[in-house]
């Protein structure tokens, strides 16, 4: 039994070392799952890249399923200094309130999505999937097809390619949802 857990931990460690950090880095730079697979030095299937990306997005809270689970900004956090019996200094993070205490101000938004302050710190609400249409170019279509969508309503951290796609959908009246800004505690209704 212990050998099974050790082997699983070893496999997770080696796979993260072999390709995990590359997948995370390329996703952060705006690459789709297809483009990530093409750029990896390690031989891996598209399905494995897709699954790793799905796990990464959920564990890192780039995809959350409830508005209450959106991480709050630590900009208003403070630190308390403590000293032990030997005079060594340590810091304790004191975050005022929890994520669930946030009350979002609602604002009806008209205009260009890219005009929303701190857009790349915001989360977009998605109803299961994105609308299919021919307004997107090949790169944008590839990006959407490579996103590991959970199949139920969710919030996703907005990236630059996603902002462009949402802007196209919003301008063409294909996406009616919300963008949540945890930094300003605002919910922009589209």
Task: Walk me through what this model shows.
The chain has 190 residues and is of the alpha+beta class. It has three domains: 2-60; 73-99, no CATH class; 100-189, no CATH class. 36% of the residues lie in helices and 18% in strands. The chain contains five helices and eight strands. It has helices spanning 2-28, 33-39, 46-59, 138-145, 160-171, and strands spanning 63-64, 78-83, 89-94, 105-108, 123-126, 154-157, 178-181, 186-189. The strands form two sheets. A six-stranded mixed beta sheet has the order 1-6-5-7-8-4. Strands 2-3 form a two-stranded antiparallel ribbon. β7 and β8 form a beta hairpin. α2 crosses α3. The longest helix is centred in the first third of the chain and has 27 residues, at 2-28. It is flat and about 60 Å long. The model is unreliable at 96-100 (pLDDT under 50).
Contiguous helical run count: 5
Unreliable sequence segments: 96-100
Helix content: 25-40%
Domains, number: 3
- Rg result: 20 Å
Category from helices, strands and their pairing? alpha+beta
Distance between the termini: 52 Å
Shape: flat
H/E series: HHHEEEEEHEHEE
Major sheet characteristics: 6 strands, mixed
Beta content comes to 15-25%
Major beta sheet, strand line-up: 1-6-5-7-8-4
What are the key terms here?
six-stranded mixed β-sheet, alpha+beta, two-stranded antiparallel sheet
């Amino acid at each position: 039994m212990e050998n099974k857990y050790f082997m699983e931990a070893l496999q997770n460690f080696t796979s993260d070392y072999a390709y995990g950090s590359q997948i995370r880095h390329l996703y952060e730079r705006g690459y789709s799952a297809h483009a990530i697979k093409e750029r990896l030095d390690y031989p891996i299937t598209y399905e494995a890249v897709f699954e790793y990306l799905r796990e990464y997005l959920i564990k890192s809270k780039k995809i959350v399923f409830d508005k209450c689970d959106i991480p709050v900004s630590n900009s208003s956090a403070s630190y308390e200094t403590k000293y032990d019996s030997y005079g060594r200094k340590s810091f304790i993070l004191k975050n005022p309130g929890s994520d669930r205490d946030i009350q979002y101000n609602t604002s009806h938004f008209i205009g260009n999505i890219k005009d929303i302050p701190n857009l790349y710190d915001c989360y977009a609400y998605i109803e299961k999937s994105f609308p299919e249409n021919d307004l997107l170019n090949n790169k944008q279509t590839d990006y959407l097809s490579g996103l590991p969508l959970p199949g139920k309503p969710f919030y996703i951290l907005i990236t630059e390619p996603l902002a462009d796609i949402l802007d196209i959908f919003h301008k063409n009246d294909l996406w009616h949802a919300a963008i949540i800004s945890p930094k300003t505690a605002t919910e922009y209704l589209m």
